[in-house]
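Private note to self, pasted from the team thread so I don't lose it. Backbone tokens:
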């Protein structure tokens, strides 16, 4: 694998592209089959990134910051922008610049630099106080929204998880608390003498203004921005909050930890009676509207998260996904295809509206759902994804998938997620490149410009996107198109390099504002002359992930889209363009090593849960797709094509083929399919373990063999968010299905007689990789 050779393929820039050399024209680009796309991890940590204590110098025409690809004339003190070729004069404070005295942003190795921005003034109408200390940046806000419709046991789990989380919050973080069942309750934490609660009816929709009015957060008699400006001037708390109002509901964690803990101890599960044969009435939609309205009273530019803990489906008010009658099952994929899910579209529309409100406020929605049945993640997906929120789906609040993931959100140190707020991403590109859109956790800011394409993929029609929440692992896929004008320039004037620039501004958890500027260059190649350079610049892993993300998106938005056929057709076109073969002779077909892994990725993508939704609920599918769209390429590639490691007595642990032939009686296999990690013991190993050989001193080697995959699995689990599910199983055991479902069925019941002893067969009619290749070769060489 290429990973072994290059441990950090993203480098300092955090950018990987499907093609690293670009064809010159739109026609040539469409013949390349795989779209021109760049996957960028905007705030990924890298030790070589310099943080500069000043603001960037920008081009006066296109506003792109000075970078190491700009041409500099040191005597005339001029730099030429690589994007628009504008000549810019250096300002006086760059007067000392020379070939031997360069600012950091002009060093060729610093293609990515970070600038420290002055903190945005909390309220532009009041002006910035020049004497204000930087510590007064707005504190991050966490509003916990807790479902109370659950059994006592689950409720105890979720309460203890919440108490632990509140203990881990930074001292200056502000905390709010909303609980909901049949009605939504906003707890006034500032009133610690006794518990004081504002109750909202669960059956009817509440607007932001109604929430603020009922909670007493508006100025009586005045409406509109003037009122809120006057309200903001009436005396500020040190953390930039109005002195009354919001601070009754949002308190610093250090002040309200005791109040909250005792409140959680007294809190009961929803006391509303539930008739036999009916579901509990749960008003998730109203509770989220109320939490969003409460945060609407915060000052603009405050980073805030709504952390929702849900234990079942919404059955009341806006966002309802199912009736209260238990004989009515929650919608399945089949229902959605046949338009037989009466609540679905209305609920999605509600969450779409909530997403718009949260994005305009700059706040994030996180969903932690733990239930055996679906809770409505498929409907909430739009709000979670557009605000850059986290989602975790587990079976119970007592399960390690929920408990460990939830703890990770609040942890500091090397395992912290690096949660940042209020991000925006802008993309600048060379003249003939157009931006189609982004797939990933962001929202289009509708910023039009000459480099915006007419066709849209994902969040499009813009060259700037808002990311209310982003973290170290956030990755966005930007799709590019070429302008259709055929260039008849004289060859001498054509620039051989193309440039792309990604500008990410964001707020760190400490409230500091940073701007990261990444400028990358790639080569234009004339693919009509030779496709050799094009082939050498193909990144198989990135291309497979891009195709997976695009197929998932099309499955969601195009009616009757057949993903398997679409992927197959594209793969055949790619192989017939870039393969070496004689027409109509399948045996002559060979693929350049730069493409050789790609068909295998497509084979596994076709079989993955992203394309085959038959065995998953709409909630699970939505959850898997959210993670596929936001994780980096290495992680996303594991989702599409799991990794398998084999452990046996006489060899070191080694990668094994993702094939049923890798199963042997005297082997342990470790499968990492991202969402779950499976330790699979061969038959003989399992028998020896059951006899307790590992506890005998003369069988130390066996004890070590059993321990090795456990240690490696723990390493994977520690590094990953959401925490994967650990499955430990034996050959022929019921849980072995977690491994068998992912393996290539090279041995099925049809050819079981050819099998070696101790290996396994898979009972399936799916084609194997071998058969898939044979068909691919035959179709690719057809004239």
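Design output:
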């Amino acid at each position: 694998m290429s990973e072994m050779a290059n441990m950090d393929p993203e480098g300092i820039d955090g950018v990987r592209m499907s093609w690293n050399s670009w064809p010159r024209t739109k026609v040539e680009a469409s013949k390349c089959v795989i779209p021109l796309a760049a996957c960028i991890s905007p705030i990924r940590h890298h030790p070589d990134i310099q943080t500069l204590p000043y603001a960037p110098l920008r081009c006066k025409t296109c506003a792109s910051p000075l970078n190491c690809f700009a041409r500099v004339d040191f005597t005339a003190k001029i730099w030429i922008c690589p994007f628009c070729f504008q000549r810019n004069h250096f300002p006086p404070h760059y007067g000392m610049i020379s070939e031997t005295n360069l600012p950091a942003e002009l060093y060729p190795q610093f293609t990515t630099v970070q600038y420290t921005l002055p903190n945005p003034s909390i309220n532009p109408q009041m002006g910035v106080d020049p004497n204000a200390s930087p510590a007064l940046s707005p504190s991050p806000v966490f509003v916990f929204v807790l479902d109370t419709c659950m059994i006592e046991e689950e409720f105890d789990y979720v309460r203890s998880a919440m108490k632990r989380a509140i203990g881990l919050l930074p001292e200056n973080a502000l905390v709010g608390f909303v609980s909901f069942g049949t009605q939504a309750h906003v707890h006034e934490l500032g009133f610690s003498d006794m518990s004081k609660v504002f109750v909202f009816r669960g059956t009817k929709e509440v607007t932001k203004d109604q929430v603020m009015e009922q909670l007493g957060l508006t100025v009586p008699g005045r409406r509109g921005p003037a009122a809120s400006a006057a309200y903001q001037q009436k005396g500020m708390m040190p953390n930039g909050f109005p002195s009354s109002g919001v601070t009754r509901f949002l308190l610093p964690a250090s002040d309200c930890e005791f109040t909250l803990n005792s409140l959680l101890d007294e809190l009961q599960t929803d006391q509303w009676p539930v008739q036999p044969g009916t579901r509990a009435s749960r008003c998730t939609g109203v509770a989220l509207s109320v939490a969003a309205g409460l945060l609407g009273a915060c000052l603009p530019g405050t980073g805030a998260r709504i952390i929702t803990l849900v234990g079942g489906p919404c059955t009341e008010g806006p966002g309802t996904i199912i009736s209260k009658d238990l004989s009515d099952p929650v919608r399945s994929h089949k229902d959605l295809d046949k338009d037989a899910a009466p609540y679905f579209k209305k609920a999605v529309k509600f969450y779409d509206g909530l997403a718009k409100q949260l994005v305009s406020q700059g706040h994030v929605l996180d969903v932690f759902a733990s239930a055996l049945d679906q809770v409505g993640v498929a409907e909430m997906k739009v709000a979670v994804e557009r605000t850059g929120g986290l989602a975790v789906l587990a079976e119970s609040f007592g399960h390690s998938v929920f408990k460990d993931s939830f703890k990770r959100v609040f942890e500091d140190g090397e395992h912290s997620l690096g949660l940042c707020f209020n991000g925006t991403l802008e993309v600048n590109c060379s003249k003939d490149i157009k931006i189609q859109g982004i797939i990933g956790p962001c929202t289009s800011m509708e910023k039009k410009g000459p480099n915006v394409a007419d066709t849209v993929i994902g969040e499009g029609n813009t060259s700037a996107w808002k990311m209310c929440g982003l973290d170290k692992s956030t990755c966005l896929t930007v799709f590019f198109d070429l302008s259709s004008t055929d260039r008849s320039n004289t060859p001498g004037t054509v620039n051989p390099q193309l440039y792309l620039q990604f500008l990410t501004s964001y707020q760190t958890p400490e409230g500091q504002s940073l701007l990261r500027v990444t400028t990358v260059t790639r080569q234009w190649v004339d693919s009509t002359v030779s496709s050799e350079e094009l082939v050498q610049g193909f990144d198989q892993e990135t291309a497979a992930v891009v195709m997976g993300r695009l197929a998932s998106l099309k499955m969601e938005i195009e009616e009757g889209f057949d993903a398997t056929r679409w992927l197959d057709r594209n793969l055949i076109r790619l192989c017939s363009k870039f393969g070496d073969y004689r027409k109509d002779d399948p045996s002559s077909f060979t693929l350049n090593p730069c493409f050789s892994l790609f068909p295998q990725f497509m084979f596994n993508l076709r079989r993955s849960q992203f394309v085959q939704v038959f065995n998953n609920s709409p909630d699970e599918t939505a959850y898997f797709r959210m993670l596929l769209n936001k994780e980096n390429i290495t992680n996303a590639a594991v989702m599409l094509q799991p990794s398998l490691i084999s452990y046996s007595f006489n060899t070191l642990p080694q990668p094994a083929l993702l094939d049923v032939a890798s199963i042997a009686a005297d082997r342990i296999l470790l499968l990492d399919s991202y969402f779950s990690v499976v330790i699979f013991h061969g038959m003989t190993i399992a028998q020896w373990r059951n006899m307790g050989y590992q506890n005998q001193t003369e069988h130390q080697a066996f004890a070590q063999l059993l321990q090795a995959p456990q240690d490696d699995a723990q390493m994977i689990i520690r590094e990953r968010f959401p925490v994967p599910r650990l499955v430990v199983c034996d050959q022929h055991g019921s849980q072995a299905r977690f491994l068998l479902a992912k393996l290539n069925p090279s041995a099925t019941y049809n050819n079981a007689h050819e099998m070696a002893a101790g290996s396994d067969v898979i009972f399936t009619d799916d084609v194997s990789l071998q058969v898939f290749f044979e068909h691919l070769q035959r179709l690719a060489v057809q004239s």
